[in-house]
Amino acid sequence: MILASSEPFVFALFEYSFLRYALLTGIIMGFITPLIGSFVVIRRLSFIADTLSHFSLAGLSIGLFLINIIGFTFISDPLYLAMIFSVIGALFIEILRGYYQNYKEISMPIVMSLGTALSALFISLSGGFNSSIYNYLFGSILTVGNDYLLIITITSVIVIALIIIYYKEMVIISFDETYARLLGIKIKRFQLVSTLILGMVVSLSIATVGVLLVSSLMIIPVAAAMKVGKSFKNTVGIAILFSEVSVIGGLWLSYELDIASGATIVLINLLILVIVGVIKKFFIRKRVRNIQTDIVEL
Amino acid sequence: MRVTVTNLTFGYDYRTVLKDISFKLNSGDFLAIVGNNGSGKSTLIKCILGINKIPPKRIMLDDIDITEFKNFKNIGYVPQKFDDFNYEFPITVNEILQASRFNKITEDKKLELLDKIGILELQNENINELSGGEMQRVFIVRSLMNNPKLLILDEPTAGVDKKSVEGFYKTVNELNKEGITIMLITHNFNESQANYTHILSIHNGEGIIKEVNRGDEQ
Asked: Of A99, A129, B135, B212, which is the most buried if we count CB atoms within 10 A?
């Protein structure tokens, strides 16, 4: 993904179509990941994104093995196999969650272990680490083509439509599963569909930030927005804003400094989290001090 | 809503919690359920809410067997504790109520309920900034969002201040007058100002139902 930056990012955007694809992909993913991430955070399932991204790495590794070593030609891009594996991983998680009713979180380390073991196996069979694996681990957004952009767009439209249609049900299930059950909402069906959607979004995020940093793109903007959000919709909106700032800023830095987009995007995300935390802490302290002064004066 | 419980026996594993409970409520009846901790009051409620799975022909709601009953949106429920609610993520009172509203009560009716329960000014507040009593009142309003025909309240006024308790019972009595069947688990039986029609005393899983005249001193 490294590109020698001979001209400023803005000018290069007009010149190179792959840069425009990268920016568009980034903007779409910057919108969709915190949107999904908000529901993931509320349900305390942050670890699930990590699990699915590691499982999709198995798909990537098998894809690279099939293309580079066996010489299969029917798979043009291992990212497609990553998507399939992410969905399979999501199904495994749901099956295991049903199997271990009282220890549902056990499903995640089991699926993650399987994904990591398969990845290690097929990376070894493919001759160890190479630049392709590196790109998938840490982000290779500049290699995104228009077919991939089309898949991301279609998936995002479906995800947004589902959230709009089932907004009430999603909010109730996320905040109060017991009450949702009392209202007769089919929890298991919703859980399965949302985990499958999460699997798709996780695998599509790989190109933007890489397998190892996917959960950061989904969780960190939400974590920062939670500190300052006044309502649910307001918090999700702020999370999307933080996410877009980090994606666009991260892409620009990635181009200018010739470093992996995953690193720059996630580091900007973390910087925003720290700044928001410091401002919030300072603001609260100041407010508490003012209230205490008022009480003393009374 | 009519509620008919016939010879209901229920237990967890090898422990029998409810033994041969029977009672019948017509639409507009008001049942108080009293008993010590662990006597089986909440277990009975969970059977009526369909959470505890029971054999057919034990509970009928509007003459429909609970095992086939689908329209749980017609039942309002306020639990004793709110441990299942994820408080830490920002969400306003209004957003919770909107998301819980499926049978489309009007906006005016919603505001009227908020006013009656005494939390009208809190509607745009973040839920994680409310006190325990305020939160309790939010969930009472939430239970009324779908025009329930049966309202089940599990010690709903625990931790709520005296003035709000008065407002709460006034509202519940009004709802009852409108024909809503009410089932109320209560510990402060003598303090409550509710207009009961029936009292179910549960002791060691066995229930005794008593009919009372409205307005009688409890």
From this structure: B135
Using CA atoms, how far residue A188 sits from A48, A160, A169, A193, B87, in Å, is: 16, 20, 12, 9, 22
What is the extent of the structural domain holding A34? 9-217
| Beta carbons of B91 and A171 less than 8 Å apart | yes
Indicate the number of domains in chain B: 1
Range of the structural domain that residue B121 is part of: 3-211
Question: How many folded domains does chain A comprise?
Answer: 1
Strands B75-78 and B150-154: parallel
What is the structure's pLDDT at B159? 67
Query: Domain for residue A176, yes or no?
Result: yes
For residue range A256-282, what is the model confidence (pLDDT) as tens digits? Answer: 888 888 889 999 999 999 999 998 887
- B217 in a structural domain: no
3-state helix, strand, coil in chain A (%, to 5): 85, 0, 15
A168: closest CA of chain B, how far (Å): 4
Question: With contacts defined as CB-CB under 8 Å, which chain B residues touch A179?
Answer: 77, 84-85, 100, 142
pLDDT (tens digit per residue) in B78-102 = 887 777 788 789 999 999 998 888 7
The answer to whether position A238 is within a domain reads no
Residue from B91, B151, B152 to probe the interface with A (highest A Cβ count within 10 Å): B91
Asked whether residue B107 is domain-assigned, the answer is: yes
Higher pLDDT among residues B163 and A146, named by residue: A146
Query: Residue B125 phi/psi, 5° resolution?
Result: -80, 150
CATH number of the domain enclosing B25: 3.40.50.300
Residue in chain A closest to B102 (alpha carbons) equals A168
Q: Is residue A266 part of a domain?
A: no
Distance from CA of A232 to the nearest CA of B (A): 4
CATH number, residue A181 = 1.10.3470.10
Q: B152 and B77 in contact (C-beta within 8 Å)?
A: yes
Per-residue 3-state assignment (H helix, E strand, C coil) for chain B:
CCEEEEEEEEEECCEEEEEEEEEEECCCCEEEEECCCCCCHHHHHHHHCCCCCCCCCCEEECCEECCCCCCHHHEEEECCCCCCCCCCCCCEHHHHHHHCCCCCCCHHHHHHHHHHHCCHHHCCCEHHHCCHHHHHHHHHHHHCCCCCCEEEEECCCCCCCHHHHHHHHHHHHHHHHCCCEEEEECCCCCCCCCCCCEEEEEECCEEEEEECCCCCCC
Contacts of B50 in chain A (CB under 8 A): 182
Q: What is the pLDDT of residues A180-228, one digit of tens each?
A: 888 888 888 888 888 888 888 888 888 777 887 888 889 999 999 999 9
Specify whether the CB–CB gap between B1 and B60 falls below 8 A. Answer: no
